[in-house]
Each structure stands twice: as structure tokens, then as C-alpha cells.
Amino acid sequence: MTPARRRPTGSISWTRFPSQRRAVAAIAATISASLLLSGCVFSPLISGSGSGNVSTPDASIAAAAPDGLKAFYSQKMSWTPCEQGFQCANINVPVDYAKPDAGSISIAAIRLQSQGTKKGSLLVNPGGPGASGYDFVRDAAKTHFTSKLRSSFDLVGFDPRGVKRSAPVTCLSDSERDASREKVYNYDTDQGLNAALADTKAVNAKCVEKSGPALAHIDTVSSAKDMDILRAVLNDAKLNYLGFSYGTSLGATYASLFPDNLGKLVLDGAVDPALSNEDVTAGQAGAFEAALHSYVADCQAKSGCPLTGGVDEGLQQIRDLIADVEQNPKRAKDGRLVTAATFVSAIFTPLYSNESWPVLTQALQAAVQGDDSLMLRIADFGADREPNGTYSSNTAFAFNAVNCLDYPMVTDTAGMRSEEARLKQVSPTFGYYFAYSGVNCKDWPYKPLHTPAPAKYTGTAPIVVIGTTGDPATPLAWAGSLRKQLGNASLVTWKGEGHTAYGRSNRCVSDAVDNYFVDGKVPSDGTMC
Fold first, then answer.
1. Number of domains in the chain
2. What DSSP designation does 166 have?
């Protein structure tokens, strides 16, 4: 997901494009039909089949609440029919866990009830930070998760604090977002960098004005604590959780905070919590460069590829296209400006799955002929901009709020310029576009609440970590590192391209996950799929 404003700078979101799991099929289907990309049209909350009910925590669960939080742990959760076959509810959580009596916010949840013998609830998170778990379950519960898993668990998605329906981070109007995405800065000059800093500071002030006091607490630790309240009010003694991408960071944080409350935990597309923001960015820059290399090789092996010569020549042709847009931003057929940031975002999006590589090929074919309209449509899809000009998510703003609180960042000019040089070394194509992450957080109104540190898990329940060999957003090495940090964990590796594995890879992966959740069979550490 490239939620970064103006240009996809560093501190990249680990599931960069929200609802990525819906994106692959939707992009491919739409491109083949009309060469025009559009996002899925989401239905509003409407009554569906079934009747509502109330979840009431067992007395023993409520009694085990942390000090000062019993009222939150003992609240009732009223489910009402919604979204044509689902149930929706809200729970209250403290704005600030250090001052639980100082106010609360509402967390929105949705569930698809199991159709068999229920073993409990399974919480899922699609990534981000900033992606909607509510949307993920609503849009993908019946396609991304196997019937075996759905028959055994209620699938529960939720919008973490700061996301969409849960005290959302709000900063700009849709028209202001369009205008912001068209701005171009030359970060290599003091004038350009200062202009970017000034504009970012102004946007941050609007975030404070429109988002309220919860903005100071949109961090991963607070979200993990929210998950434990959600577990309790779902009346689950133990948490069962499947997290993708950034969702692995959320899951690992939960395991560190609540080791005795953990049931079964799968972390797919693992993030290494010990890495600094700058090391995360360098890892992603290198992984995206490798993914682009794989794409070019695949493209050139097929007819109709616009990239000629060998792989190195094809990569250079893509760099030349980016350089051309940098020097001469173009207008798409709808009159909107296509900047280099937009163009690069359109390359990122299909790299998340090799099933979407044909989309990139067709867009590059048009770009070679001077028409960047399709590149703009892909970038819009990644930014959750609908064809009517509205944005269906606030991921860009939630992403920034979480990262600025979770990570101390290099924000001085010399440090950011040094990082740019490092990133250009690991990624000649994308390095510049991953740099200057400090711009987003230098004038963020709240100081970081946390520093990167290895996960510390002391529980007895075994955990499953999944990595993908060709993952562009969460490099495989991160999965191995997280598995070692957790200790009581097994690593499953999928030999494939794209981001994450469960729901888009093969039966080896799905069986490993399903048998773990449903049958309690832990896959062998080092399983290769």
C-alpha cells in the first residue's frame, strides 16, 4: 500500500495497498474486461439474514481483567444483522490505557458466524497499518478462508483504532487528497525539502484538528490491548488470531503482552519487530527491487511484453519511463496529473501478486506509447480512490499516525540524505521513492511511544510464522527472525512470488494453517511449501 502523500516515501506500509487480497482478482478481472481499473463498490450497512444476539463475557474472564479495566472487559457486545449475511457490533476501549477513566472510543467489528461445530472466534487483520479488518472480512471471508476454517470459527474482523470506523484519523477532504497527490517536491534540494516539510506540517495540524485526542494513542501496543478486550467480550478464554503483514506486528505484540491469553496464532508475511524504521525501509526497497526483477523476467518470457532485450535492459527501460515522468508529468485522459509518485505507485501495486503482473504489463504497454491513464487507475486503486473521486479508506492517515508513534525516525536533513544514498544502493529503481520517511513524522505533534525491540513471548501455546520467498513487502528473512524471537514457534515457507501466502498460494500452506487452527496440529518447523 502506498499511503504516503505526494510521493511514496519510506516507512512503507507492510500491506501497502489496503484490501490487497481483494485487489488481485478485481484488478485482473477489470483490466481484462475494459483496461479500466476501479475499486470494489462496497455496500452500506444494511440488514441481512439472521437475528442479532448479545455476547456476554463469562464472569471468570471479566474477573481476570487488568487493573482499572474491568468495566471494559465485562461490557456486553450486541450483534445486529448487517452487510447481507454478517453481524456487526461495537465495543468501547480506553482512549489512553494509562488513564482508562479519561474517555473511551468505539471499535467496530464484523463477524461471519461458523456453520459447523464452533471452536471459538478467529480474529483476523489484513495489515496496514491502517487497513480495515471489517472490510477484509466482509469482502473476502467467503473466498480467502477455507470452508474448513469457516465451519469451525466465527471469523471476526475489526477496524483497529484510527482506522475507518474506529475513531478514524481524519486529515484532508477527498479533493484535498487529490491535490496533495499531484504535488511534486525535489527532496534533493533544500528548497524542495523545506516545502515538503512545511506542507506536511500543515497537514498534520489538520489531523490534530479533525481527529481529536485519540490521535495521540493510535499505536500498535494500544491496538493489541484493544484486541484483548475484544477477546474477552467475545467470551473467548484464549485469543485465536490470523494476522497478515502489519497484522503480524500486531499479533506478535499481543503475544508479548498477553502470553497466557494466547490460543492459536498465525503470522503471515512476518514483520521483524527488532528492526528500526530505516532498516525496515531498506529491507523493503531491496525486496521490491527483487520483485521487479522477477516481474521483468516473467514479462520478457511472454509475448506482448513492452520491455525488450534482457532483464537488465528491461529494468532500465522502466527506470527511463519513471525518469521521463519525473521531468515531464503527464495528463491522463481524465485530465488529472500523473506524477512520478503516481507512476511508481502503479508499479508497486501489481507486484504484490504475480497474478496481477499482466495488469502491469498492459499499463506499461500504454505508458510506452505515451498514455499513462492506466498507470493512474492502478495508483488510484492502491490509494483506495474510487472512480467517482471519493476515497473509500483513511489508510494513508492511519498509516502515518501509527508509524510516527511506533518508530523513532531520522528527521535531520543530513540523516535523511544519507538514508537516500543507502536506499539507492539497495534499490536503483525505487530507492529515491523510499527515502525521506522522516518528512512525515518530523513535525508530528506527538512523540514516539515505542522503540523497536525483539518480540518476547513466554507463553506455552505454539505459534506459526509464514514467509514467502518472493515477498516484496515483508522479506523472507523477517519471518525467520521473528520465528527465532518468539522461540515457541514454527516457520512455514512458501516458495512463491507476492505478498503473504494463506489464501493465495497452495494447499500445502492452507492445510498447514487449517490443521493448526482446527485440529491443533502444529506444522513442523522449517516446513517448505
1. 1
2. S
